[in-house]
Amino acid sequence: MILTDAYGRRVNYLRLSVTDRCNLRCSYCMPAAGVDPCSHQEVLSYEELLRIAKAAISLGVEKIRVTGGEPLVRRGIVDFLAQLAALPGLKVLAVTSNGLRLGELAQDLKRAGVTRLNISLDSLDPATFAAITRRDAFAQVMEGIDCAARAGFPIKLNTVVMRGVNDHEVEEFAALSLKHPFAVRFIEYMPMVGEEDAGRLAVSGEEILSRIAARYPLLPLPHDKMGGPAKNFRIAGAPGSVGVITPMSNHFCGDCNRIRVSATGQARNCLFARQTLDLRPVLAGGDPEALRRALSGCIAAKGERHGVSWQEPGIDPITMAAIGG
Known about the structure:
About 30% of the residues lie in helices and about 15% in strands. By secondary structure, the chain is an alpha/beta fold. It has a single domain (about 15-325), classed as Alpha-Beta Barrel (TIM Barrel). It has a twelve-stranded mixed beta sheet with strand order 7-8-9-6-5-4-3-2-1-10-11-12. Strand 8 and strand 9 form a beta hairpin. Helix 2 (about 75-85) packs parallel to helix 3. The longest helix is centred in the first third of the chain and has 13 residues, at about 45-60.
């Protein structure tokens, strides 16, 4: 049995959230006051998360990305990642982090078997960084990125571009790829936390690329099937790359290959899905085959595409921290 939806798309990528807690308060991810965290009883145990991972791998999942909230704030995360890395059939184990704890954990993550790191970085200016994240932690994050690079990780830097907030930094971010072997990816702003006029913050991937191309010649790169939905380019002579992720202006639903499971066991076949499948009753039953059927059923119900736009969000206000990104 392979995870395949009604439109013939094969799902081989699981985004697995381990916590809804985070040590930043990014404006596009959650309200300024934060969100009420789930209780320890609501959050899946590591044993339950491993069972989901094993079921997904048995259905053809080859890549798992561990997310949050901020996954590195959960106690015991390194040991859990080592258990995930040891699962037969898993080809890529990635972690998405805000970088705050990488200074102390980068080497441990490498030893645990993590193969890739995505690090969120929305500004190269300490003041703008503090305004977006609502925390004065820029220096700590930059130290974490440096430690991750020295640990030998291939690094992707994810930047959510917001007009009038950090879009003036696009060219500066792109220039990082000239100095470092980083994959710098620009992500279109998505209306997730209930803004009344989300479109005012929107900067399309096309505009982002045109700004970069006006300064640097861009060479298109072949698509990496295990690398996610980014359209990637290289500035001539650069050791790194730049890319855009365009869920709003030019959706990539036709090539979607992922399923998401939140820290509370809610499976989503789309980031913008209105409905979720609660895996907790299935986990309580203890039947691996029932868990595989549940995951397969979730994917079978996947729509052809999402219907969200900057003008018509079309979803109730939700937070990335609650979903797992």
